[in-house]
Recover the amino acids of this structure.
């Protein structure tokens, strides 16, 4: 189910970049990124979303978990978005203020995405680099393991993680991250295969540097570019994955919330005349994803000299 | 000498006749004519694990079995037992032997007569460990001789205390007298199965191709998780009083989706109404949004085990938490589908149960809140020593909604921080069963219409006593009640003790709320157990 | 080529074995069991049921018996939850359903996705390109569980054109909405992959040469650019096809289609071990087979690739 949303397109999408060298490339990249209007606008939007997620709470007098029992009985009429009672986005279906919950949800969704990708990137890169560097039988076995893990019912893994470690947001981040390092590992391996034949690696081998050191010193830094790009593209994927997990009821624990949980709740109320419950969280969900996608795209173009 | 029971043969015929008349009356009184379209489509949330009478375990599956098969007794629209395949029965003086006389016009849908030996076969099949029926314990509950030792593997299934003395006489031997025995044989687990088919076809005999039943309907189509069609049986003995010709059951997992499809006219009856939607639906569809009280209680368990947190051992804290729950807001504003605020464990609708005057019920919520605050302070909790409580519930919109409301009531009234522990179903069951919780959500529906089906949970030996509540007085009152002529007094006393010691927080008594198309008539709304038969229903022509 | 196929299939067997064992370990590690219920069963009734399904055996024995039954009898056992049916019954009923709507979703997603991708790449940085990119990101981001209720609201309740759910043996009216709901996100992914790989190909030397020679654009695209550009799309389509034909729990549960997507997720929640395993194996086998098919197609499209 997870992979129905992950798009291995990045596999084909990612530039075959073997020629990351020196600092000038980074400076070029910044220049190219700045020239990409969609990416720059998205970056601005992204910064605004971050600010909203961190400080948005200040603008509202309401607490995210406070149920207003006076309005609870008739949300359809009393819970409409209103400036007067400062429920800017109205009430959600349990009678809590939707605005502060969207702030909270955005914060958690972005955290899930970012922390999840960091886990995926760290694990995936190391695994892929080791597999690719050693090659041969080690590579074969390590990659078959990845294949098998991809086929394992992902829900059991999530359930197990939540059972063993309890339902904390941190565990959810780690769990999702651990599920999504697999594709990262494949990409890192592919890149390592080309890098390891480069002169500087061969020189290091010839001068007797230990394999672990070569991987950490020479291979991984050269994977950095591709990894950064992949990470930004992974963030929106993980946000989507979290929303699916929330749909199954395994996501973030109440009274915490995520954009996915808010959307799932809002969608269930679609037919009851409380459109705002879906509209606001969905809006923030979509612009966050758009922003991440375009920034990721821009980064990829910027870091790939051959493309333009 | 044998005692002829209240339900003698002539009374039975009278009843059947009256039931038939009731239909005729309906048409006459309301001047309603039957529609040409006699199909009925209803929705269930999930598919049934089994629709084999010997294996069936869920409520919706039982409804299917009641259409496809007929047991010794049926229930009428009020839930009283009326003759089914048995026209009458006798009870021996020691009340240990029941003799059922079966009607001679009952036949299986393949034309074979329904005989007493089909019942014998079916009952032995349920008890037999090889069948592995999840309802094998029902034979034990009915106190059928040897049932316990058969289930425990100590005796052969053949030794079960049930025999066919001839084709139309079934004799049941009980190990102890059981006043409710005739009511118990309206339960689907006691329904007959066609020995000649089950033995020949094997495990897959319930497939539509090989299906044989003795009910008012036969199974013609079944796609699990999608739809099931049952069609009126011509071989049913009372077929002329059966109106619906086709009953379709659709599985729709999402209740909001089911409601949309009901609005689109694809479904005549939904299983549920989404939490909180009843008030507006009943305004929009006053004739069709239905809510009836149910014999079920929704409550929270405190964990009273020794390893549970200290506060849970303190009766003052438990009472404070219970008092601070505003049942009126929950039943009116949060759920709003006709649920009844609960201050006692047993629902007031239970037959022969008088709701005792517990103190909390007569107070206003302000008074309750004041008392709760005082109790909590007395117990030493407050702003300098804040209390944190975890509510454990399983993943479900309805449970979440209630947990959120209650956690906020505790926070707003008592300043208690609550964490909500939402767990996936199996994980939840494991945690609750192992006592790995502080407060846990629970629901209980009566197996039969009598208070002991609820209060037995308070016995220290009960397997369902998740709070691990132990009180010797309650135990002895319960034991005593089993043999009492009128146990009402004991039940009242138990409720009072439970109210004082607060091992659980009764929150509300259930109501079954659903949408029912207004052309469908005959739904047994007065049956608190919601036992319905498709043959009770009919569709009237739209004006 | 033939030897290659044999070799790949030979590796598949141990892979599936490991998959079975791992899934079993996960299942045993998860709390609960298939016969836990709100009302716990009396202990001796539970014992009888567990004995009936072999759950009283040690773990290794359960796995061993399971494998023996599959290998020698091709018997996947009875469902633990749906007592009247076997795992084979459930798969033979549910798989054709998801296969049908999955196949049509695949067709729709590929046709729309590839055309959109090519159009966007050819008109790079035009309005059409921005539109295509915008739509595909949106389609990829919009959760299924929002789309499904919206579709039912619009097509069933408001317009009254299509039935709101069910399957009815796969009549077309019942297939339309599942196909729309399932295909969008795949369509979006396909469009984006096609676009970026097409862009890369269009910048390649041989295409520039062709252009310089003044060949018409249409011909360049279909004769020269399409084949190499489609390769990365193909490697995405293999796993995607398997995903689609094994269904989606959201589609199955919203549209009540009775497909195996739903059975699979329910089985996980109900701890219906045998159904769980049966569908996992089905998915595993399909994944291996279609990855192989993709590799063969690769070789067919690009003769330079040799196995």
């Amino acid at each position: 189910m997870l992979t129905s949303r992950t798009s291995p397109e990045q596999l084909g999408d990612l530039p075959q970049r073997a020629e990351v060298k020196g600092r000038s490339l980074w400076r070029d990249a910044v220049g190219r990124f700045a020239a990409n209007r969609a990416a720059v606008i998205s970056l601005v939007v992204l910064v605004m979303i971050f600010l909203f997620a961190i400080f948005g709470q200040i603008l509202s007098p309401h607490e995210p978990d406070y149920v207003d029992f006076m309005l609870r009985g008739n949300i359809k009429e009393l819970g409409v978005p209103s400036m007067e009672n400062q429920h800017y986005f109205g009430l959600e279906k349990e009678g809590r203020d939707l605005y502060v919950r969207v702030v909270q949800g955005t914060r958690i969704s972005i955290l899930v995405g970012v922390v999840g990708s960091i886990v995926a990137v760290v694990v995936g890169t190391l695994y892929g680099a080791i597999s690719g560097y050693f090659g041969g039988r080690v590579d074969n076995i390590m990659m078959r393991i990845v294949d098998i893990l991809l086929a394992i019912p992902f829900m059991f893994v999530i359930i197990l993680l939540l059972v063993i470690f309890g339902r904390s947001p941190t565990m959810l981040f780690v769990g999702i991250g651990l599920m999504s390092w697999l594709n990262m590992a494949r990409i890192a391996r592919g890149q390592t295969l080309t890098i390891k034949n480069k002169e500087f690696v061969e020189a290091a081998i010839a001068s007797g540097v230990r394999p672990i050191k070569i991987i950490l010193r020479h291979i991984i830094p050269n994977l950095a570019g591709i990894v950064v790009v992949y990470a930004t593209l992974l963030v929106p994927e993980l946000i989507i994955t979290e929303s699916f997990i929330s749909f199954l009821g395994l996501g973030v624990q109440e009274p915490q919330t995520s954009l996915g949980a808010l959307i799932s709740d809002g969608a269930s109320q679609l037919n009851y005349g409380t459109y705002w419950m879906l509209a606001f969280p969905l809006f923030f969900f979509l612009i966050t994803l758009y922003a991440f996608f375009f920034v990721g795209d821009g980064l990829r173009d910027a870091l790939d000299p051959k493309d333009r | 000498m044998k005692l002829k029971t209240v339900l003698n043969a002539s009374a039975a015929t009278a009843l059947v006749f009256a039931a038939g008349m009731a239909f005729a009356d309906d048409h006459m009184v309301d001047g309603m004519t039957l529609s040409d379209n006699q199909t009925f489509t209803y929705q269930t949330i999930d598919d049934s694990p089994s629709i084999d009478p010997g294996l069936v375990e869920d409520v919706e599956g039982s409804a299917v079995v009641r259409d496809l098969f007929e047991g010794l007794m049926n229930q009428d629209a009020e839930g009283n037992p009326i003759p089914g395949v048995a026209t009458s029965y006798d009870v021996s003086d020691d009340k240990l032997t029941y003799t059922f006389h079966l009607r001679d016009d009952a036949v299986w849908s393949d034309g074979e007569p329904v005989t007493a030996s089909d019942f014998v076969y079916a009952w032995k099949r349920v008890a037999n460990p090889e069948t592995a029926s999840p309802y094998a314990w029902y034979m034990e509950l009915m106190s059928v001789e040897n049932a316990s030792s058969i289930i425990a593997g100590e005796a052969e299934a053949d030794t079960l205390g049930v025999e066919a003395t001839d084709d139309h006489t079934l004799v049941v031997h009980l190990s102890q007298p059981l006043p409710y025995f005739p009511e118990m044989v309206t339960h689907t687990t006691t329904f007959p199965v066609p020995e000649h088919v089950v033995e020949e076809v094997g495990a897959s005999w319930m497939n539509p191709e090989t299906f044989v039943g003795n009910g008012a309907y036969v199974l013609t189509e079944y796609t699990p998780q999608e739809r099931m069609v049952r069609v009126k049986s011509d071989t049913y003995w009372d077929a002329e009083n059966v109106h619906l010709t086709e009953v379709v059951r659709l599985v729709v997992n999402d209740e909001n989706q089911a409601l949309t499809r009901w609005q689109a006219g694809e479904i005549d009856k939904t299983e549920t109404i989404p939490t909180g939607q009843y008030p507006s639906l009943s305004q929009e569809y006053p004739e069709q949004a239905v809510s009836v009280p149910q014999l079920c209680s929704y409550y929270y368990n405190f964990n009273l085990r020794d390893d549970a947190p200290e506060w849970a051992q303190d009766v003052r804290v438990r009472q404070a938490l219970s008092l601070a729950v505003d049942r009126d807001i929950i039943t009116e504003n949060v759920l709003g589908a006709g649920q009844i605020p609960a201050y006692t464990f047993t629902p007031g609708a239970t037959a022969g149960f008088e709701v005792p005057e517990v103190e909390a019920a007569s107070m206003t919520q302000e008074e309750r809140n004041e008392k709760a605050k005082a109790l909590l302070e007395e117990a030493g909790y407050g702003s300098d020593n804040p209390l944190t409580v975890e509510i454990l519930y399983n993943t479900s919109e309805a449970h979440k909604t209630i947990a959120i409301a209650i956690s906020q009531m505790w926070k707003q009234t008592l300043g208690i921080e609550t964490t909500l522990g939402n767990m996936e179903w199996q994980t939840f069951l494991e945690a609750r069963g192992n006592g790995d919780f502080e407060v846990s959500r629970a629901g209980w529906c009566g197996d039969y219409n009598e208070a002991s089906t609820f209060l037995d949970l308070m016995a220290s030996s009960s397997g369902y006593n998740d709070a691990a509540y132990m009180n010797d007085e309650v135990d002895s009152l319960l034991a005593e009640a089993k043999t009492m002529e009128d146990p009402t007094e004991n039940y009242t006393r138990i409720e009072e003790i439970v109210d004082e010691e607060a091992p659980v927080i009764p929150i509300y008594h259930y109501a079954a709320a659903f949408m029912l198309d207004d052309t469908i008539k005959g739904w047994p709304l007065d049956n608190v157990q919601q036992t319905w038969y498709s043959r009770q229903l009919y569709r009237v022509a739209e004006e | 080529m033939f030897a290659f196929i044999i070799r790949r299939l030979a590796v598949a067997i141990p892979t599936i074995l490991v998959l079975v064992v791992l899934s079993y370990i996960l299942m045993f590690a998860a709390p609960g069991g298939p016969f836990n219920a709100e009302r716990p069963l009396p202990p001796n009734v539970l014992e009888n049921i567990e004995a009936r399904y072999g759950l009283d055996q040690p773990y290794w024995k359960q796995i061993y018996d399971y494998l023996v039954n599959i290998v020698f009898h091709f018997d996947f056992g009875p469902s633990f939850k749906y007592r009247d049916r076997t795992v084979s019954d459930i798969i033979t009923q549910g798989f054709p359903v998801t296969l049908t709507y999955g196949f049509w979703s695949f067709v729709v997603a590929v046709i729309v996705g590839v055309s959109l991708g090519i159009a966007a790449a050819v008109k790079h940085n035009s309005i059409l390109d921005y539109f295509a990119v915008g739509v595909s990101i949106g389609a990829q981001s919009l959760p299924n569980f929002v789309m499904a209720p919206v579709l039912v609201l619009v097509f069933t309740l408001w317009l009254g054109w299509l039935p709101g759910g069910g399957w009815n043996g796969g009549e077309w009216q019942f297939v339309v909405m599942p196909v729309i709901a399932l295909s969008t996100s795949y369509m979006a992914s396909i469009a984006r992959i096609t676009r970026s790989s097409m862009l890369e190909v269009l910048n390649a030397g041989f295409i520039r040469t062709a252009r310089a020679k003044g060949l018409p654009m249409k011909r360049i695209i279909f004769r020269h650019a399409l084949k190499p550009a489609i390769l990365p799309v193909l490697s995405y389509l293999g796993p995607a096809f398997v995903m689609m034909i094994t269904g989606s729990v959201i589609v199955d549960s919203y549209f009540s289609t009775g497909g195996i997507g739903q059975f699979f997720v329910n089985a996980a929640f109900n701890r219906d071990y045998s159904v769980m395993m049966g569908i996992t194996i089905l998915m595993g086998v399909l994944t291996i087979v279609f990855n192989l098919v993709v590799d063969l197609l690769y070789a067919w499209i690009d003769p330079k690739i040799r196995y």
About this structure: Chain C has a mean pLDDT of 86. The CA atoms of residues 105 and 182 of chain C lie 6 Å apart. The radius of gyration of chain C is 24 Å. Chain C is about 75% helix and 0% strand.
